[in-house]
Amino acid sequence: MSGQGKQKTCFVTVGATASFTDLIRAVLAPDFCKALESQEYTHLLVQYGQDGKELFDKCLQQSLEVGDLSSLQIGGFALDPSGLRQYMIQAKGQHTKPPAAEGLVISHAGSGTVLDALRVSIPLIVVPNSTLLDNHQVELAEALEEQEYVVHGQLKNLVGALKRAEQLRTRMKTWPPVNSGTHRQAKGLKGVMDEEMGEEELRIDLEVP
Amino acid sequence: MAFRYLLIALLTVLLLAIPASIYRLKVILDPKRPKPVRNGRHGDEKPAHLLIVLGSGGHTAEMIAMLERAVNEKDERLRLDWNSYTQRTWVTGTGDTISAQRVKEFEEMATTLPAERSHKALLVTVPRARAIHQPLLTTPYSSLRCMLACFAILLPSERDFPDIILCNGPAIATILVFTSVLLRFFDVRGCHSPGKMRTVYVESWARVKKLSLSGMLLETVVDRFLVQWEQLEGGRREYLGVLV
User: Quick check: keyword Transferase in the entry (chain B) (predicted)?
Assistant: First the structure.
């Protein structure tokens, strides 16, 4: 096996404000942990939110009793006010010593977190929280999956999502998307702000291939 | 008899006031209204004042991500020159230390000289319009408190009215934009005529198929309304690709 012995991290984030307990349960389920092991993951790190510690400890205990998890190390923390980007970079594994294998991020569908993972350019499974009332988060997950940026994961089939994430790894796209050469897209935020400041309209002629 | 005359007089005033107000609203909400002409934005005589509203969580993340991308753009013609906005006011909710930290990091990244940071970027806070899980009943009170704070921010003290108000969808932004419209309606301290407080709203990238509540409220009120998914384009809504 190629990646044997290398560290490979799966980082899970449930978000800060709305507690997403179902995701904590799902990633600590024995069959999911087994699936992680079979994909050569060595570490599972869970950001479980303000009041998630009790549940995290309970699920972890259960998982350790049921499953024979010899090679997977599981850890967790509540929140980190300095942001989660550092954990994603760590899971990406590029700059760690010794070099680690590229891992994975599993995240709630909050736009800030999704954006962070896209910019770090690490495979991402987005799991919308279906208990939220105004569920536009599903729309974002669906739209991004359609464009092949993320895997839209369902709570009841995280193992399947994990397999699809490995396929996504082989054809990762970079963020931000390259604008497709349409003129109206060219001016960006700067163009709009210049126009609003009363400056002449920005005209950029892109070379359209 | 006197009562009848009074009634007629009142009705007449009202009948005149309504069309006048509608006309006034039409004038101030027209995006083609005057713009703040800044010839050479680097001069201190005519500072360019940008006001940015941050909400919390996702709103802050998207705003900072969009600005980071704009000031780091590889193509020079598309790169936002941060230093050309010689006055920058950031608005956050009271106690939002995470947003305050993001502002600090962004300013350190985007400005080259330490002096430019300290003199030109200002962070102000307003009481939250609506805290998470706050009962709906108390929202009018907290919104009013937020609005009063917005008046204080927009009215000139050391700085003139902002030239551009840049925001996305938090409740604070909606209230601040409506406050600016109210100020312009009455042309308070001549804020409307020189084209001050032009508003740029960027709908959240998370809104794929329909607008957010803030978006719906602000669509006909702001000067520019940017969406980040093509299917939302149309009317006043402009699609310029993904901005975050």
Answer: yes
